[in-house]
Amino acid sequence: MKNFIDKSFWKNKKVFITGHTGFKGSWLSLFLKHLGAEVTGYSLAPITKPSLFALAKIKNVIKKSIIADIRDHKRLQEEIEKSKATIIFHLAAQPLVRLSYFHPKETFDVNFTGSLNILEAIKKNKRITTGIIITTDKVYDISKNKIFKEEDTLGGSDPYSASKVCVEFLFNSYQKSFFSKSKKMIATVRAGNVIGGGDYSLDRLIPDIFKSKTKNKKILLRNPNSVRPWQHVLEPLSGYLLLAQNINNKKIKKLKQHWNFGPNISSCKSVKYLTQYLSERLKLKIVLEKKQTKLYKPETTILRLSNSKSRKFLLWYPKWSINKSLDKILDWNKSIRNKNASEICIQQIKDYLKN
């Protein structure tokens, strides 16, 4: 059997997305629009120029785009009420590990308080039936090198990871205190390192590679042997949508609502592998960065996620290999010279749904 995103389920469904101006949020907005949903977005303005949000003209694609702070509890509740949404995807966050060392208070404030405001809004809003809270693959205790499953011990030493662990505990509290006997269904989801066309995020490998190409510079690698669960952005987004369908229909009500949407282990490659694959095609040179900043601790060397739970209960599975995902990024960046970003993204969404 194959995982099945039901277009009839999403048609005219009112959906509220936080973080819609970000990379994943922009792709999710386009994905939902393609499925026929009515999307309201709530987020701060994009922090990069260019941004996928601007290039794909997301503001014109969705029903309403609200530029506001997730920490503004009153405004958030008002906008959710106005949207008449029944499903919420909470993506808004401070998402960078390295930045969290420089701005720990802001990281905890945005990630924890923002999630608290969303859970409160879900609790109080009678229309909301389903909430998907996006955390991270970095919520696990990495003292042991293993392929992490949802029931494994949580832990996070850097401020970003710790803030997301706090969100997981916050979710558990609300789930047991307010939603266990409610008709509302909420879940947390943990994806791998997402990649894809239109990513201009700061301090990320693939955007940095394409910046090197644009500026005709060499690629500098800090940790070439670090292994990550790389996956095209459409992989976890399809998982979020499939999960929302299933919990909305109460098909998996008795399960603990924590879900990994990670790639197959064969796609968990090193930084060096990805860089060599792209650099050969972009004709760039790789250089190992010898100077290491002392302002932050290094990240874990190996990180891998098990997707066995999602495979078993949602029939979800990764469709694109790491090489195909990288080829899609190359195609995206080549096509953007002549086509609209929204058009390219929608075509790749269609390609993904065909498989």
Topology:
Layout: H1 7-10, E1 14-18, H2 23-35, E2 38-43, H3 52-55, H4 58-61, E3 64-67, H5 73-83, E4 87-90, H6 97-102, H7 104-124, E5 130-134, E6 147-148, H8 159-179, E7 185-191, E8 193-195, H9 205-214, E9 219-221, E10 227-232, H10 234-248, E11 258-261, E12 268-270, H11 271-282, E13 286-288, E14 304-305, H12 308-314, H13 322-335, H14 341-354
Parallel strand pairs: 1-2, 1-4, 2-3, 4-5, 5-7, 6-14, 7-11, 8-10, 9-13
Antiparallel strand pairs: 10-12
Your description of this structure?
- This protein has 355 residues and is α/β, with parallel strands linked by helices.
- It has one domain (7-196, 230-265, 303-324, 342-354): Rossmann fold (3-Layer(aba) Sandwich).
- 44% of the residues lie in helices and 16% in strands.
- The protein contains 14 helices and 14 strands.
- The protein has helices spanning 7-10, 23-35, 52-55, 58-61, 73-83, 97-102, 104-124, 159-179, 205-214, 234-248, 271-282, 308-314, 322-335, 341-354, and strands at 14-18, 38-43, 64-67, 87-90, 130-134, 147-148, 185-191, 193-195, 219-221, 227-232, 258-261, 268-270, 286-288, 304-305.
- It has a seven-stranded parallel β-sheet with strand order 3-2-1-4-5-7-11, with helices on both faces.
- Helix 2 (23-35) links the parallel strand 1 (14-18) and strand 2 (38-43).
- Helix 5 packs across helix 7.
- The longest helix has 21 residues, at 104-124.
- The chain is globular.
- The model has no long low-confidence stretch (mean pLDDT 92).
